[in-house]
Amino acid sequence: MKKLSVQTEKNNYEILFENGLINRINEYINPNVKKIFIITDKNVEKLYFNQLISSLNNYEGQFISLFPGDINKNIENVLLIINKMSQFDMSENDLIISFGGGVITDIASLCANLYLNGINYLQIPTTLNAMVNWSLLGKNNVNTRFVKNKIGTFYPPEKIIIDPLLLQTLDKEHYNNGMAEIIKIAFIKDKMLFEQLENDYNISEIVFRTVQLHLEIMNNENKFLNFGNIIGKFIEELENFNILYGQALSVGMSVITKNSIKKGFCPVKCLFRLNGLLTKFSLPITYEYEKNNFIDYVKNQSSINNEIELVIPTDIGQVKLIKININEITGWII
């Protein structure tokens, strides 16, 4: 088994990595826990729920299974779950288990934070994106009928259990969506990881290394994680969130890299190899959008000095942060 330790202002916890780990979840639960409430979705329930609960038969438990999809990551479901936990008479010593992808991760984290002013929760991410991104520090966001991702907190888990065998049933589109985040981390931080992805790779090793790098960046160079994000988030909003974020991010990374080359910041090979890797995982590298619409979007994101920060590559595995005036943004998006 591999382990990583995470330190936050609220608590310290471990991320555990091993194939088949969900078969031994009971080994990693605090002995004071009497009741467990599992939050999952109907896809994961059908595939893995019986496997999970087979190791939890010493606990009194209840669960809720939501329909999958971002539309269900809403405040109504958060309140529904909190009400069910209250009816189950969960105490501050009991445990929530989050068993799903990013939607379930967000909902479970927020429920744990709000119930009884905060109870412990254990994360078991079941998608590639949730393993390498969402679940790491306990950031959560949910939607209302009027706005997206405007309600949320930071509430770290007690432990994260990563079982790469859960990826065996992940569909190709969502697998590739998670690969966009992995490619981003490799491109900004680790040339060797990038080269591994270009060739044959072991997904268990890739997940561990990506999480390790992600934590390093968050601790030391957090803004570097914004590489490609400004274009990615714009495309996501333009599509009314009917696009996987990894697909939008992929376009953002490619466009920023292309213009970094034009402006002499990095060699041509960066774009050639980045686009090659994105294409390998069926991720888009172009998207048609109106320049003026993007400029309006950027103005809403800019500071009081009409400046924005861009993360740009200088080579594979190396990036830097620059500040530009919003009047110069067109040179970075075309």
CATH topology of the largest domain: Rossmann fold
Query: What is the number of beta strands?
Result: 11
Mean pLDDT: 93
Domain count, please report it.
Answer: 2
CATH architecture descriptor name of the largest domain: 3-Layer(aba) Sandwich
Structural shape: globular
Note the total helix count: 12
Determine the structural class based on helices, strands and strand pairing: alpha/beta
Order of helices and strands: EEEHEHEHEHEEEHHHHHHHEEH
Q: Percent helix among the residues?
A: 40-55%
Largest sheet: 7 strands, mixed
Features:
43% helix; globular; Rossmann fold; 334 residues; 20% strand; 12 helices; alpha/beta
Layout: helices, strands, pairs:
Layout: E1 2-7, E2 12-17, E3 35-41, H1 42-53, E4 60-66, H2 75-87, E5 95-100, H3 102-114, E6 120-125, H4 128-134, E7 139-142, E8 151-154, E9 159-162, H5 172-189, H6 191-198, H7 203-220, H8 229-238, H9 245-262, H10 268-280, H11 291-301, E10 307-315, E11 318-325, H12 330-333
Parallel strand pairs: 2-9, 3-4, 3-5, 5-6, 6-9
Antiparallel strand pairs: 1-2, 7-8, 10-11
Task: Provide an overview of this structure.
By secondary structure, the protein is α/β, with parallel strands linked by helices. It folds into two domains: 2-169, Rossmann fold (3-Layer(aba) Sandwich), CATH 3.40.50.1970; 172-333, Dehydroquinate synthase-like - alpha domain (Dehydroquinate synthase-like, alpha domain), CATH 1.20.1090.10. The protein is built from twelve helices and eleven strands. The protein has helices at residues 42-53, 75-87, 102-114, 128-134, 172-189, 191-198, 203-220, 229-238, 245-262, 268-280, 291-301, 330-333; strands at residues 2-7, 12-17, 35-41, 60-66, 95-100, 120-125, 139-142, 151-154, 159-162, 307-315, 318-325. A seven-stranded mixed β-sheet has the order 1-2-9-6-5-3-4, sandwiched between helices. Strands 7-8 form a two-stranded antiparallel sheet. A hairpin with a 2-residue loop joins β10 and β11. The longest helix is centred in the middle third of the chain and has 18 residues, at 172-189. The mean pLDDT is 93.
